[in-house]
Design a protein that fits this description.
Layout (H helix, E strand, L loop, with lengths): L28 E2 L3 E3 L13 E6 L2 E5 H7 L8 H5 L2 H9 L8 H19 L6 H8 L5 E3 L1 E2 L8 E2 L12 H11 L1
Parallel strand pairs: 2-5, 6-7
Antiparallel strand pairs: 1-2, 3-4
Helix pairs in contact: 1-3, 4-6
Length: about 180
């Protein structure tokens, strides 16, 4: 199987180390019942995967790009339409002026993500991704991660560890898959 080159350049499993290629294998579980970790053959479930999505009538190359752009005023979003998903996340993590307070963003982020994920797996807009999501059947989907995202996913540092998080991205994907 050819591994997709689209990867995070996040912190490694241990805070003092950098991410190393293939390190995700230490925390994932892919079997007949579950997909825990959007890596390898299931990388397409990641928000970093290329997909046509729209935010306020403007096209973006991935959910991650559009989601990060949503934090800013429409007239300041052009960068997010052309950069990589990784660069979109980095830019959004920089000390830029968001259009929302933290509380305001917390109140709308799920709604924004729902719209973007629905578009990513829309049968007409992105038919290949729609088909791939359907092919996951009834498997439990979990955005297992090691970069401390406990809102969208479940943070783990070892395969044996249970993990902590709300898994809102996985829940959205399972809901959209069911139609």
């Amino acid at each position: 199987m050819k591994e997709n080159p689209i990867m995070y350049d996040e912190r490694g499993l241990k805070p003092e180390t950098a991410y190393e290629k293939g390190q995700w294998r230490e925390i994932i579980s892919h079997n007949q019942d579950e997909i825990k970790g959007f890596f390898g053959e299931y990388r397409f479930l990641s928000n970093f995967w290329p997909a046509k999505v729209f935010l306020d009538g403007e096209e973006y190359p991935s959910v991650e790009n559009a989601y990060q752009a949503a934090k800013y005023k429409k007239e300041t979003r052009d960068y997010f339409k052309v950069c990589s998903a990784s660069d979109a996340k980095k830019k959004s993590s920089a000390s830029l002026q968001f259009s929302y307070t933290g509380e305001e963003w917390d109140n709308i982020r799920l709604q924004i993500m729902t719209s973007l994920i629905t578009q990513k797996f829309d049968k007409a807009l992105n038919p290949e991704l729609y088909k791939k999501l359907q092919e996951t059947g009834n498997k439990y989907l979990e955005e297992t991660n090691y970069w401390e995202d406990t809102y969208w996913g479940v943070q783990k540092t070892e395969a044996k560890e249970e993990g902590v998080g709300e898994n809102n991205l996985g829940k959205l994907l399972m809901k959209i898959r069911c139609g």
